[in-house]
Amino acid sequence: MIATTTHSIEGKQITQYLGVVTSQTIIGANFFKDILGGLRDIFGGRSGTYEKVLDEAKGYAMSELIQKAQAMGANAVVGIDLDYETVGSNGSMLMVSASGTAVKIS
């Protein structure tokens, strides 16, 4: 399965557009991650803990997006867009939304 943010795939021809596919993942950051992230905000530097959570959430969203596209008979997803939002009380949850167009390519 080819998954790309571009609207075409070099060297491939889109033979059929099957429709829009979407997925959402909501993942929580626990209390200790919040404390460590807060310390990074105070002292500076990157928060590897939060980066790991972001990567995990993106992975779940992309995996679900690809599964939905495969269920539609697609062998590629083009035009993928990823959006990140905080939700819940005090922004304690992270939501990653993925959308794209399921296609057949040759």
Keywords for this structure?
single chain; 106 residues; alpha+beta; 4-stranded mixed sheet; 2 helices; 4 strands; 35% helix; elongated
- Please tally the β strands and state the result: 4
* Derived structural class: alpha+beta
Head-to-tail CA distance between termini: 12 Å
Mean pLDDT score, rounded? 86
Rg from alpha-carbon coordinates: 17 Å
Question: What's the SSE pattern?
Answer: EEHHEE
Largest sheet: 4 strands, mixed
Work out the helicity level: 25-40%
Description of the molecule:
A four-stranded mixed β-sheet has the order 1-3-4-2, with helices on one face. The two termini are 12 Å apart. A hairpin with a 5-residue loop joins strand 3 and strand 4. It is elongated and about 45 Å long. The protein is built from two helices and four strands.
Provide a concise account of the structure shown.
The chain is of the alpha+beta class.
Give the helix/strand layout:
Elements (H helix, E strand, L loop, with lengths): L1 E2 L10 E15 L2 H13 L4 H24 L4 E12 L5 E13 L1
Parallel strand pairs: 1-3
Antiparallel strand pairs: 2-4, 3-4
